[in-house]
UniProtKB/TrEMBL annotation:
Domain Anticodon-binding: residue ranges: 176-260
Name of this chain's protein: Anticodon-binding domain-containing protein
PANTHER family in the record: DNA POLYMERASE SUBUNIT GAMMA-2, MITOCHONDRIAL (PTHR10745:SF8), GLYCYL-TRNA SYNTHETASE/DNA POLYMERASE SUBUNIT GAMMA-2 (PTHR10745)
GO cellular component assignments: mitochondrion
Organismal lineage: Eukaryota, Metazoa, Ecdysozoa, Arthropoda, Hexapoda
Single biological process term from Gene Ontology: mitochondrial DNA replication
Cited Gene3D superfamilies: Anticodon-binding domain, Bira Bifunctional Protein, Domain 2
Length: 265
């Protein structure tokens, strides 16, 4: 299962596989989509660890004593307050290291004895490569679709590198060109409103099912489906990766509706 996950992540652009020639060992680096995933993980960590807290928490990089003194004065020498120590991590792993990460992520710890103590300092350590690999392994799924296994990444919608994609189908080259222009216009609107959107003009050459498969493999939560009807009445279909169901949305309301989807989740 782990090998299939790593191979799929490599083919999907989340990892880059190289070989260390001197040792003949496989080495994985974070790929282009993996970097986007790491950025989203870091953003959510920042929000939940620093911003969305009842107590004051400040980040630190390097000398923690100086940061501690500053936060202590900032909080009028009163506990509780928090400090997160940001450390730079390497962005490559060997196969053995990934296996070790995988084991640690699934291994439980047992307490030999119970003690009731008053905590003065609580330290929690975790690093981005570990979270990244855990996210990859946790998101990889192999659902059966039309009697065939369709591997995909099922990322949480806030962690997915791309939130939205476009699928188009037209009966002629002229109509397809109009749909591509509309998709590009909507894509620019979504990106201007900070919605990470994937637009691939060449995808219109494929069938809708082939387009769905490609976007599901990348873990994109929603796909906007444009067809000839969209050009006539402005109605587009918004397909969910999780349910494969579609709902109708007018193109003039698409940006607002998508923003609401991600804001309320």
């Amino acid at each position: 299962m782990l090998k299939r996950t790593l191979d799929f992540a490599t083919n999907s652009g989340f990892l880059k596989k190289t070989v260390l020639p001197k040792y003949n060992i496989d080495q994985f680096k974070i790929g282009p989509l993996g970097l986007l995933l790491c950025q989203n993980i870091n953003t959510e960590w920042l929000y939940h660890t620093l911003i969305n807290k009842e107590l004051t928490v400040c980040p630190n990089e390097g000398d923690i004593d100086n940061t501690y003194d500053f936060v202590k004065i900032l909080c009028s020498n009163k506990l509780p307050f928090g400090i997160t120590d940001v450390k730079r991590q390497k962005k490559s792993f060997t196969t053995d290291e990934i296996v070790e990460y995988y084991k640690n992520a699934t291994k439980g710890e047992r307490f030999k004895e119970r003690k009731f103590v008053t905590a003065h300092t609580i330290t929690s350590q975790i690093n981005l490569p570990t979270i990244f690999l855990n996210a990859i392994c946790d998101a990889y799924q192999e659902p059966v679709f039309q009697d065939n296994v369709r591997p995909m990444f099922h990322f949480h919608r806030k962690l997915a590198p791309f939130k939205l994609s476009f699928a188009m189908t037209g009966s002629s080259q002229a109509i397809t060109k109009e749909l591509e222009d509309l998709a590009l216009y909507l894509c620019k609107q979504l990106r201007a409103n900070h919605v990470s959107t994937l637009y691939l003009p060449s995808s219109s050459r494929n069938t809708l099912e082939a387009q769905y498969k490609q976007y599901d493999q990348l873990g994109i939560p929603y796909t906007v489906v444009l067809n000839e009807r969209t050009l006539n009445d402005g109605i587009a279909n918004l397909r969910s990766r999780d349910t494969t169901l579609k709902e109708q949305v007018h193109v003039t309301e698409l940006v607002t509706y998508v923003e609401q989807l991600f804001r309320n989740y």
